[in-house]
């Protein structure tokens, strides 16, 4: 049995090199009917797909290129069938996440908002792509992660390090500390402060990245005025909840409908699906 769920194809290849028989975890989970660890993020997906098929179909038709449509189709079918063959065309390229050519980022003048910054890696990549940037707002509620981000970006200019989470309103919430997968949770072992993005920015932004382990919908609700006024490029995680594939774009289009949508997936398994919203010039 091949257990890794982020790089199952790589694991499968290594196992076959030793001529072992293997079964991927997705198939084992589906057919064994054993009480084993369930797959994260997929709870309720099949039911949601049946109920909201028209919404999934609408988003599919709105996707702006063949790669987006092909990846959307394969991920949907992978979730429905647990058949790893739908992922054969994917590879583990998480290091290339967020900075696609269609973003058309400029070398100078960009303002980046890194929501769920972890250790600052994505902000560092932004600076590499946009060396003459205007400013960076880095949001990370976990103290240890924020400290690592400060160290990583030491010497870089015009960065605001903000130890807060983003949500739909100002409040204190419980937080489950678990590295890059830290998240807001009712069973969390620490508390964090969260606020609306609209309350924390003090000027225009051009690019917002968001990966906050399922709290994206609330954070978008707290960024309505920012999105409405500044029309930034958006790179939003859409894999943490079963209905993210249609609900997040529906939410964005309720704020502004002048965006093109692209989708890219950066692993061989269930995680790191990003939906990009590119402003349509008027």
What distinguishing features does this structure have?
282 residues; 4-stranded mixed beta sheet
Kindly describe this structure.
The protein has 282 residues and is an alpha/beta fold. 35% of the residues lie in helices and 19% in strands. It contains eleven helices and eleven strands. It has helices spanning 8-17, 25-32, 45-51, 53-62, 66-81, 121-129, 143-152, 197-200, 216-221, 224-230, 244-255; strands at 111-115, 135-139, 159-162, 165-166, 171-176, 183-184, 190-195, 207-210, 233-237, 259-265, 273-279. A seven-stranded mixed beta sheet has the order 3-2-1-8-9-11-10, with helices on both faces. Strands 4-7-5-6 form a four-stranded mixed beta sheet. The longest helix is centred in the first third of the chain and has 16 residues, at 66-81. The radius of gyration is 19 Å and the shape is globular.
Give the topology.
Layout (H helix, E strand, L loop, with lengths): L7 H10 L7 H8 L12 H7 L1 H10 L3 H16 L29 E5 L5 H9 L5 E5 L3 H10 L6 E4 L2 E2 L4 E6 L6 E2 L5 E6 L1 H4 L6 E4 L5 H6 L2 H7 L2 E5 L6 H12 L3 E7 L7 E7 L3
Parallel strand pairs: 1-2, 1-8, 2-3, 4-7, 8-9
Antiparallel strand pairs: 5-6, 5-7, 9-11, 10-11
Helix pairs in contact: 4-11
């Amino acid at each position: 049995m091949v257990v890794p769920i982020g790089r199952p194809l790589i694991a499968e290849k290594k196992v076959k090199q030793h001529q072992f028989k293997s079964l991927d975890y997705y198939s084992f989970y589906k057919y064994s009917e054993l009480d084993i660890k369930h797959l994260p993020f997929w709870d309720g997906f099949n039911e949601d797909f049946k109920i909201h098929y028209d919404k999934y179909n609408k988003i599919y038709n709105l996707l702006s290129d063949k790669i987006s449509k092909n990846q959307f189709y394969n991920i949907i079918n992978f979730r429905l069938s647990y058949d790893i063959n739908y992922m054969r065309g994917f590879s583990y390229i998480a290091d290339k996440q967020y900075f696609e050519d269609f973003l058309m980022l400029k070398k100078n003048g960009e303002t980046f908002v890194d929501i769920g910054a972890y250790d600052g890696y994505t902000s560092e990549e932004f600076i590499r792509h946009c060396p003459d940037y205007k400013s960076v707002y880095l949001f990370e509620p976990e103290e240890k992660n924020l400290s690592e981000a400060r160290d990583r970006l030491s010497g870089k200019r015009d960065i605001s390090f903000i130890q807060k989470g983003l949500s739909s309103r100002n409040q204190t919430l419980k937080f489950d500390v678990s590295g890059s997968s830290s998240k807001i949770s009712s069973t969390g072992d620490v508390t964090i402060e969260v606020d609306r993005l609209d309350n924390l920015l003090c000027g225009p932004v051009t690019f917002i990245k968001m990966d906050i382990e399922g709290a994206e919908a609330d954070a978008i609700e707290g960024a309505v005025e920012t999105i409405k006024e500044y029309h930034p490029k958006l790179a939003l995680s859409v894999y943490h909840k079963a209905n993210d594939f249609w609900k997040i774009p529906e939410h964005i289009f309720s704020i502004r409908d002048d965006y093109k949508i692209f989708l890219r997936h950066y692993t061989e398994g269930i995680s790191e699906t990003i939906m990009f919203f590119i402003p349509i010039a008027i």
